[in-house]
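Table 4 source record.
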Amino acid sequence: MCALKHEELVSIIIPVYNVEKYLEVCLDSVVGQTYRNLEIILVNDGSMDGSPDICRAYALRDRRITVIDEENKGLSGARNAGLEIAHGLYTLFLDSDDWIEPELVSRSVRVMEEKHADLVAFSLRTHYEDGREPEDWIIEEGDACLASDEERLCYIATEYMTCGIRFEVWNKLIRTSLIREHHLFFEDNRKIFAEDICFFAYYLAFANRVVSIRDILYHYRVRSASLTGGARGMEAPKIVKFTALAKTIYRFYEKNLPDSGLVRNFEYIYASLMHDQYKRVPYREIPVAASAADGDRFFDFITEKTYRQRFSFYRYFGIRMGDLLADESFAVRNRHRPVLFASSVPCVELKRKIRTGIKNAGDRRRRRAI
């Protein structure tokens, strides 16, 4: 692959918190990029180990590195601090216990410029410290134009909220000017769950083209204690946390894009986001899970709106996904009508068993083919 004739500046923002064991691997992968015009911003988020010393040592050896020392504000605060001083045309976020392939920046910038994209997403490999075999998450090739209200709504609901390009911030190259122009930021991850999802729900409201590639360019490390896991906690039911997340996204759309389909048809985005939670519990237990959010006015409002539109899910999500979302919508809407809900249980559980059987059979065929 030939080099780009002109290398635009790319900002790489890396929050750092107590990662002295992993930081050098991360930084070596960044300074070793084949793409050289980089601004590497290390945000020390109040580390209490040797991480700050490692940051400063690398900054002395490489003038592209800038170190910011902050009091501990959490992952979102560190990323926002990096964004405040970023000058690159493009921005990449990297977690300090992960590492990247040498051609990540050059490959993704090339795609960004050739396709005139606002976001390029790439595949990743997950590495487990407990000794399990690494797992690849392959993102299918895609090129989505979000020129119309309908296309934007459809992409956010059916592609992003279903984890098609992953929820996380770190497997994507984005355009810094969109962040500046629309004053985008990370919500405080100490107050809201899944700040990555929130940020990209904001970003995709203004992006005009999203491209995804199959190249495995990112290496994600799963360890027992991390900046991400430590900041979030699991003290509240997931259904309550995701309701709060959906409410935050809806309020942002309502404030910044009041006449858009993202507001008028937010139930499609909401249903897709919540599906990832409801699918984890047996159908007959959905009313109990949903009841955790009882009394939340937004939850009552969006539940009713989602229920009224449940059959139109087929249009956006197709037969299989639309059917699942319609079942979940019915269960949540009728969670306090035990007789009405109970009548749906045998049919829905049978459908779930059939779907699981078909999926397992397909997986066995693919394994035999390999």
